[in-house]
């Protein structure tokens, strides 16, 4: 979660369980919600992990697919990787705090833990080039370096990075001195043709070879869009949320979350109006928006602010809903996937590449975006059931268990002695 910062709890809370477990339930629900958003974002265009020729994004123009794509643009695209990044930063703080409490060398232990995650990420990237773990790991080491900054410094840096300010500044200089907004090579068309062949014609081994060479294209994408900055910004804000104990007792923080929720939807409304004004102006003045660097710059800025505001809207909104008994009951099943986030994230890729790639069922372009979202919901429901059943018998998800065992150089207990006994949750 995507990187993904992951830790497990043992069971859903009851009125008698400690407050810490209720806190972790909300975090796990947020993580499960993020995993659904990530799955939706990937499934809608055939689980493509790279650019495709532009014509394929508009290949299906029926109403159901138009609705599915519209929902993707407004509510999913660019929102859930940032939510996942926030949760990584939050769990980073929880894990570091736990290591310090155990009198362990937090930097060495967490650094080793990141290296293992990096290995998992590289293997995952070889199968599917949009893997986020290989991006999270180097940024995770940067988070280690930033962990001792003051709250004020973290807040300022977090906001600057979340709003993608460094990228927008670089783009201004690029437009002024080079006459183009692209400050890294733009090979989107060429890459799209190559990736189409990889998805539609290549064997499993050929896809792996393609993905290995695509590491450079992945870096270009992260730099040109500012995803690296945005991801690290949400890392910082997540760590700050841990420091300020936003999730220690959500009921006591209710006024804060209400204020954050209100400010976020107000910001969304302002950006929506500004976007509408830009769109109307472009139409009335007959501006070629696609080839106008300044219009693209402004549109990108509005999109970054919109996505950041939507992420805050999701975090605050779900946290508030978890305080309502009926909504708590409805949302709590998401925590099963949240506790097994790494396993769930990787298994989503297995579903996706098997369904759409040539070496699997080869449904690429055979299904519409609308049908892909139906498949998305079915896959997520299967994951929910699997995680619920698995956690009735085991402490951790299978990948989480391997990751934790490798972290401590010792096989960790996996099977539960009793499915009803609650134990203090530990970080994976």
How would you describe this structure in keywords?
428 residues, mainly alpha, 2 strands, 1% strand, disordered N terminus, disordered C terminus
Describe this structure in words.
The protein has 428 residues and is mostly helical. It has one domain. It has helices at residues 19-43, 63-76, 80-101, 106-127, 133-146, 151-162, 165-178, 188-200, 204-213, 215-225, 227-243, 254-284, 293-321, 325-331, 334-339, 341-356, 369-393, 398-408, and strands spanning 7-8, 426-427. A two-stranded antiparallel sheet has the order 1-2. Helix 3 packs antiparallel against helix 4, helix 3 packs across helix 11 (227-243) and helix 5 (133-146) crosses helix 11. The longest helix has 31 residues, at 254-284. It starts with 6 loop residues before the first strand and ends with a strand. The model is unreliable at 1-19 and 419-428 (pLDDT under 50).
Share in helix: 55-70%
Number of helices: 18
Average pLDDT? 91
Strand order of the largest sheet: 1-2
List how many beta strands DSSP finds: 2
* Structure class: mainly alpha
Morphology call: globular
What's the N-to-C terminus distance?
Answer: 14 Å
Beta percentage is: under 5%
